[in-house]
Sequence to fold (157 residues):
Amino acid sequence: MQLSDVLAVTQPLAAAGLRHWVAGGWGVDALIGRQTRPHRDLDLAVDAASLDETRRLLAPLGYRAETDWLPIRVELAADRERWVDLHPVVFGADGQGRQAGPDGTHFAYPARDLVTGSLDGHRLPCLSARLQIAFHSGYPPREVDLADLALLRSLTG
Fold:
């Protein structure tokens, strides 16, 4: 997945007013302000209320559901070369979000952790370093996860 692919996905969502936040490796890069490593996919937290519209907007780009684990996530693939992993987040009236997790668990998205980063001069909504560090817990980290965690911790001091 190249930065041009990330922008091809995020720009139509922004133009349509659909709330979304870059997470995972690209989210780390958005916080750092530059691409730090190659990425297989783009992780996007999206407002669950606009999940269907998000999928409709990505369909002309060739994205189709490949792995459907809703309500937890749905992975879209285009030409088996580009992947977008959508994480639907349900928002309450207080602006706080919750994403379904396995076995009845959930992940919290505090409003203060929905921030903005940038890549190549493009502002991108993303998840805070604090929230991304929290999401890296609970599973054995791979080498790329350890590298991402080191970068995230450098931002949090």
Q: What stands out?
A: The chain has one domain: 3-150. Residues 143-156 form the longest helix (14 residues). The CA atoms of residues 19 and 132 lie 18 Å apart.
